[in-house]
Amino acid sequence: MKQSLEHRRRVYAEEVCSRSGVGTAALVRAFATVPRERFLGPGPWQILVSPPAQYRLTDDADPRHLYRDVLVAIDPSRLLNNGQPSAHAAWMAQLDLQAGEHVVHVGCGTGYYAAIFAEVVGPAGRITAIELDPELSERARINLAPYLQVQVIAANGCTHAPDAADAVYVNAGATHPQAAWLDCLKVGGRLLLPLVRWPARQEETALAGCGVVVKITRTANGHAARIVSLVGIFPCLGAVDPEADQHLAEALASGADVNAVRSLRRDAHQREPDCWLHSIGFCLSARPSR
Predict the structure, then answer these.
(1) Could you give the C-alpha distances from 28 to 32, 79, 116, 183, 228, in angstroms and in order?
(2) Residues 39-61: what's their mean pLDDT?
């Protein structure tokens, strides 16, 4: 006998959070509650199988296919997917979200992970979900209509200036942080950012989208920072710069310990021994935040 869909969601939530090492009851509950199929359209669905990194069509339109730790195509022609749940759970946990907080989600796609955020912060919280692609933002607006604490904005998340935020979650890779993301953080606010290569040179294209996830926390006098994990992710259009890419390439190739990073500096300064990544308008440094 088949498991009920509700039971399958619960098993999925526990598997995803266990695999990612997340123990928060709020995240488990959120993954067990949000109907993933609502955000992916009618089945059958294309699931990314790796290796050999190709899509496989599900046998039918049973939504139970979606309650596994898999990437599901949103637009396979662009390799655009609803990302791997365990990876997102691990990164979301780094934000230490509390009920009632305001989360800015840059690159919300069709809205699935924005809905997870909405469940975590609850009805007293607020989610600003930003999506550049007009078709995706419209789908997100429809999909997220039941979540009254969510506002979907069709805009460039690199330049749109949101209200003061407790957390910013960037759901695409950038070669450098944007001022809009850093400036909107409250003191104590957290930014989770995939900092990735996006090389212009053809011989380096295999490195596109590869890099590290950085957690940045605004302090009273600056920004604390640390590297959370490795990552491979779709680019954040508008947050890719060739010069910044080369600085990141040098940092990643240097062999310097990424775990030594302790702060993000925005002050103008010459490269110092503490600088792990000295780039355009920012620096990831081993110097502790003040």
Answers:
(1) 6, 28, 10, 31, 20
(2) 93
